[in-house]
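Consortium newsletter contribution from the modelling node. Members have asked for a concrete example of what our holo predictions look like. Here is one, prepared for the zinc ion complex that several groups have been discussing at recent meetings.
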Amino acid sequence: MEAPREISDLNTLLPCPCGKVPTELHLVDNGQGFKWANASGDCCGEWMIEFRTEYYKLDSPAAMNLAFHAWNAALRASAHEAELAKLREENERLKFMLNQFKSSGARIPIGDCSNFVSVEELLSEKDKSND
Ligand SMILES: [Zn+2]
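And here is the predicted structure:
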């Protein structure tokens, strides 16, 4: 097992899912006989991680080290979700543009440019070629 980092590493706390980097963690006992405690950031105070206290007092540097470790090790869905949200937004924009284009009745030259097809025809051609 990796040794707990020094408190000086606190300046490398990873961001909270709310997007901010907390400047400190608040440790609270979660009623499991002091074996486990919760830590939340001073950013939003909403995201909470659970960590093993090893029975260190919560106001001790050792407990803060453990909380720090657990905080940085905890999985964050936020980056992934932000990426998904961006892709969904882009998808909506492309759908909108495609619908605008379809309803405009525009025709697109394909191949040697002597054949013009509508967007509908082009899309159905594409579907056929996928078979
Ligand atoms: Zn936060």
